[in-house]
Amino acid sequence: QKEVEQDPGPLSVPEGAIVSLNCTYSNSAFQYFMWYRQYSRKGPELLMYTYSSGNKEDGRFTAQVDKSSKYISLFIRDSQPSDSATYLCAMITGSNTGNQFYFGTGTSLTVIP
Amino acid sequence: EPEVTQTPSHQVTQMGQEVILRCVPISNHLYFYWYRQILGQKVEFLVSFYNNEISEKSEIFDDQFSVERPDGSNFTLKIRSTKLEDSAMYFCASNLVVQQFFGPGTRLTVL
Fold first, then answer.
1. Chain B interface residues facing chain A, Cβ-Cβ under 8 Å?
2. What does the pLDDT look like over A29-85, one tens digit per residue?
3. Which residues of B touch A42 (CB under 8 A)?
4. Domain range holding B54?
5. Is the CB of residue A61 less than 8 Å from the CB of residue B17?
6. Does position B91 have pLDDT exceeding 70, yes or no?
7. Quick one: pLDDT at residue B109?
8. Structural domains of chain B, count
9. What's the number of domains chain A is made of?
């Protein structure tokens, strides 16, 4: 079983739609959960990170963690064409000594004007 | 805003040759990483580096790979004898605590 599972999509939505991106994981030791956005041929860019279960909001983006279900989500409200990118979830067990970041495969999102 | 930089942006090499990929992490960061992303595939962890030594490495990071922090700013990935399957984007990343910042990547093409 992979450490982190993410539906690769592709996902195509009309502008203004609410987008839901999800990852599941198997390692209950994961403590920190991150969402990255990656444009084509660029490096991943950190959008948000969360530590505990619950919701964290930043503008149009909301990250949600459910540790009991080992499930994390990223919601994008009022999606824009500029949100078209691949979204990667990542997680680590701790914040010290260079812990390995485990990435999902990424979900490709296209927002159609 | 500080950023991770990588050089070169694109490296073309012949199979069997050695390549060195260079990275300058963000100056006050303590943890440094190399990742690989084969075209169309996931970001794969190669190695993490802290306090001048390797913290963790994946099974991909075999004896042909090595990392070094030769001075206070650079962080390098050396591939001793490149294979065709080493063709990929190589990303350097650094962090102080949890927030990890990626460089723009080096596209390595092995012919």
1. 4, 31-33, 41-45, 48-50, 55-56, 58, 89, 91, 93, 97-105, 107
2. 888 899 999 998 888 999 998 987 889 999 999 999 999 999 999 999 999 999 999
3. 104-105
4. 5-110
5. no
6. yes
7. 97
8. 1
9. 1
Structural contact between residues B35 and B43, judged by C-beta atoms closer than 8 angstroms: yes
Which CATH number covers residue B54?
2.60.40.10
Closest-CA residue to B106 (of B4, B27, B14)? B4
Contacts of A103 in chain B (CB under 8 A): 42-45
- A98/B32 touch (CB, cutoff 8 Å), yes or no: yes
What does each C-alpha distance from B96 to A43, A96, B12, B31 come to in angstroms?
Answer: 18, 9, 32, 6
